[in-house]
Specification:
This protein is α+β, with helices and mostly antiparallel strands and about 325 residues long. It contains 15 helices and 7 strands. The protein folds into 3 domains: about 220 residues, no CATH class; about 30 residues; about 60 residues, Homeodomain-like (Arc Repressor Mutant, subunit A), CATH 1.10.10.60. The longest helix has 20 residues. A hairpin with a 2-residue loop joins strand 3 and strand 4. About 50% of the residues lie in helices and about 10% in strands.
Length: about 325
């Protein structure tokens, strides 16, 4: 996948403040990242995420500060690697992220990361306890992108974002944010936060210590790696089909999941599933539930689960269960 030049030059300017604070010339690092100094003042200029990754890596090594000057004390190289290793033994992503958030306070108390779950939604909140200064935007974006990238890597799955929120006005380069955080993005929020389906938190970790060692040799790629597989996608589609039967088209489901229709079909193929098979499964489950628990006429049940006629419903139901809807109902509701 070719990198897209969607990263605003404003992030580069904010990153270079760390060089200025240390009195170090950033020219060589800019050259190695192939960023032209003349473009720094261009408000419309953009670079690829990998160029920023290269520059940030150079700065963290050269200045020996993974916090890039954001915090009251520097974070020596390897600080975030230590957090990754501490999270690795967790049985699920939820436990791993809670460890990450708790241990981050050992690095700095200038910011606080927390994980909260309510009504099926997981929210990672980033609260500030110190004025971060002119690098604030880049700091908040980087910390949340890093946590999201690590979470995806730990479970080897794309984690679809339901919402990203930032506590500052929409910047001139706000069009870059949906690329950085696919999904709805809101500004002027009370705090910085990411929201996603809490079902991801129950997924087991798929990495071992050897994998962590390999990852840490090029850890900044976590922020830009485009995960394709979504291990929760099938469950999410099934839930939507159950709760919103009218949203059964590929376009409607893709919109609800913040995906393109093409991406929806591709990810289902990667999971060995198809939308039609999922729709059939949910229709069968809804039909069997209605026949077993109610006295609604079979014609109404057929219409409720999406069949145009009682005859076509009976034919499909016999294929699913080996018996007619009426026989199925009599077996589950004897005497009625």
């Amino acid at each position: 996948m070719n990198p897209v030049a969607a990263t605003p030059m404003a992030f580069v300017r904010q990153l270079l403040l760390a060089y200025g604070r240390h009195g170090v010339d950033a020219g060589p690092a800019l050259a190695r990242a192939q960023i032209a100094p003349a473009e720094l003042a261009n408000p419309a200029a953009t670079i690829t995420s990998r160029q920023l990754e290269r520059l940030a890596g150079e700065a963290m090594h050269e200045l020996d500060d993974e916090g890039l000057g954001w915090f009251a004390r520097r974070l020596p190289w390897g600080s975030y690697g230590m957090l990754a290793r501490a999270s690795l033994s967790a049985p699920t992503l939820g436990v791993a992220l809670r460890r990450w958030c708790r241990h981050h306070r050992l690095l700095t108390d200038d910011v606080e990361l927390t994980l909260e779950v309510a009504q099926g939604m997981a929210t990672v909140t980033l609260r500030e306890h110190r004025d971060i200064g002119p690098s604030r935007e880049f700091c908040l974006v980087t910390l949340l992108r890093n946590l999201h990238g690590l979470a995806c890597w730990l479970i080897d799955s794309r984690i679809a974002l339901r919402q990203a929120e930032f506590p500052f006005p929409a910047p001139p380069h706000q069009s870059a944010y949906p690329v950085l955080f696919p999904g709805p993005v809101f500004f002027d929020a009370p705090v910085a936060a990411l929201r996603f389906d809490a079902g991801y938190l129950a997924l087991p970790l798929r990495r071992d210590d050897q994998a962590v060692g390999a990852m840490l040799r090029d850890a900044l790629q976590l922020i830009v790696r485009p995960y394709r597989r979504d291990r929760l996608l099938v469950q999410q589609i099934r839930a939507l089909l159950h709760s919103q039967p009218g949203a059964a088209t590929a376009n409607a489901l893709a919109h609800a999941l913040n995906l393109s229709t093409r991406t929806l079909h591709r990810q289902l193929r990667e999971e060995g599933a198809s939308l039609q098979a999922l729709k059939d499964d949910v229709r069968r489950e809804r039909a069997m539930d209605a026949l077993g628990r109610s006295q609604r006429p079979i014609k109404q049940v057929a219409q409720a689960v999406g069949f145009g006629s009682e005859k076509s419903f009976a034919r499909a139901f016999r294929q699913w269960t080996g018996e007619s809807p009426a026989d199925y109902r009599r077996r589950l509701q004897p005497g009625r």
